[in-house]
Design goal:
The chain has helices at residues 11-47, 55-71, 76-101. It has 102 residues and is mainly α. One of its GO terms (biological process) is chorismate metabolic process.
Length: 102
């Protein structure tokens, strides 16, 4: 039995992994920027006394991103689960902002 974990990856695999690592880094930075903006939205909503969640906007976003996923050959179910995860976190941030205002 060969121990593949101890082998040095070949150049092709190393290049793929470097690209994946770069994409992962970009995703983290993009999510950080998205959450900076949604944090400001949450603070604004709290200031003007809007509810933390906007189900109509969420539904429009889900449909929009499902369509984009299909065009990009990405599983729309996966994209919706990912978006739902992000939206749920944003709503938690908005709820905290509303609670801090009180």
């Amino acid at each position: 039995m060969t121990d593949n974990a101890s082998k040095t990856p070949d150049a092709t695999l190393a290049a793929f992994r470097k690209s994946i690592d770069n994409i992962d880094a970009a995703l983290i930075h993009m999510l950080a920027e998205r959450f900076r903006i949604t944090q400001a939205v949450g603070e604004y909503k709290a200031k003007v006394e809007l509810p933390p969640a906007d189900p109509n906007r969420e539904a429009r976003q889900v449909e929009r991103l499902r369509a984009m996923a299909k065009e990009a050959d990405l599983d729309p179910e996966f994209s919706e689960k990912f978006l739902r995860f992000v939206i749920d976190e944003v709503i938690r941030h908005h709820e905290r902002a509303a609670a801090a205002k009180d």
